[in-house]
Design brief:
This protein is of the alpha/beta class. It contains 8 helices and 14 strands. A 5-stranded parallel beta sheet has the order 2-1-3-6-7, sandwiched between helices. A 4-stranded antiparallel beta sheet has the order 8-9-10-11, covered by helices on one side. A 3-stranded antiparallel beta sheet has the order 12-14-13.
C-alpha cells in the first residue's frame, strides 16, 4: 500500500514513515505543495496532508484536489478548534487528526478510512450506474456531470428506494458540516438540477410535499 504524505516537519514524517513501514505501508513524503505536484494519484491509495505548509494551506490543496479526485484524505494539524475541524470536513476530508498524535491511533484512522472506502459497493438501477469508489455516475453509458452534493443525494435516494426520505435527514446527511450555510431553498435547487441531469430517470424522484422525497421504483428502464 502506498500513501503520500505532505508534511514539512521531518521529525513527524520520519516517525510516521518508519512506523507504518511495519505494516507494509510505503510512505512517500513531500515537504511542500510545490513538490506535491509530483504525486501520481493513480499510484497512491491515501493522502496525509498538513494544514500549515511553507508554501500554502492544506485546506486549499484539499479544495483543489476535490475538483477531480475522491482519493481518501486525512488532514493533520495542530489546530483543534471547531472552525478548523469543520473546514476540513466541509472541504471533503475523510478524517482530521490533531498534533501531537499517537502513531497507533493514526494507523487505526488510516485503516478505518480505507475500510470505509473499500466496503462500499456500486449501485445500479436500470441504465443508471453509480460507482461509489470513484463517485461517478453513468446513464446509458454516458457520464453524468454531478457535483458532490448531487451525487450524494442520488446515492441516498437509491439506497432508500420506495421509502420517503425526510428533508431534514437529507440536509443533515448531504450537507452535514455545512449545515449552518444551507438555506431553505438549497435542497430544492439541488434536487431540480439532479432531476434535469437524470433526464427521464428524474421522473423516479417523487416529491412528498412538505415532508421529503422518494425514489419510486415504478418500472426500471
Amino acid at each position: 500500500m502506498k500513501i503520500a504524505m505532505i508534511e514539512d516537519d521531518s521529525t513527524i514524517s520520519f516517525a510516521v514513515e518508519r512506523y507504518l513501514k511495519r505494516y507494509d505501508m510505503e510512505i512517500k513524503v513531500f515537504e511542500n505543495l510545490s513538490v506535491a505536484e509530483g504525486i501520481d494519484f493513480r499510484d497512491v491509495e491515501l493522502i496525509l496532508v498538513d494544514v500549515n505548509l511553507p508554501d500554502g494551506s492544506g485546506f486549499d490543496y484539499l479544495k483543489w484536489l476535490r475538483n477531480f479526485s475522491t482519493i481518501p484524505v486525512i488532514m493533520l494539524t495542530v489546530k483543534d478548534e471547531d472552525e478548523y475541524v469543520l473546514k476540513g470536513f466541509e472541504g471533503g476530508a475523510d478524517d482530521y487528526i490533531t498534533k501531537p498524535f499517537s502513531l497507533p491511533v493514526l494507523k487505526a484512522r488510516i485503516d478505518n478510512v480505507l475500510r470505509r472506502n473499500k466496503d462500499r459497493e456500486d449501485i445500479s438501477f436500470g441504465d443508471l450506474c453509480l460507482s461509489l469508489k470513484s463517485k461517478t455516475a453513468k446513464l446509458y453509458d454516458d457520464n453524468l456531470d454531478l457535483n458532490k452534493h448531487e451525487f450524494d443525494l442520488l446515492v441516498l435516494l437509491l439506497e432508500n428506494k420506495n421509502r420517503n426520505v425526510l428533508r431534514e435527514r437529507i440536509i443533515d446527511e448531504i450537507w452535514g458540516y455545512d449545515l449552518y450555510e444551507v438555506n431553505d431553498n438549497t435542497l430544492t435547487v439541488t434536487m431540480k438540477r439532479l432531476r434535469h441531469k437524470l433526464k427521464d430517470y428524474g421522473n423516479h424522484i417523487k416529491t412528498i410535499r412538505g415532508i421529503g422525497y422518494m425514489w419510486e421504483n415504478g418500472h426500471e428502464k
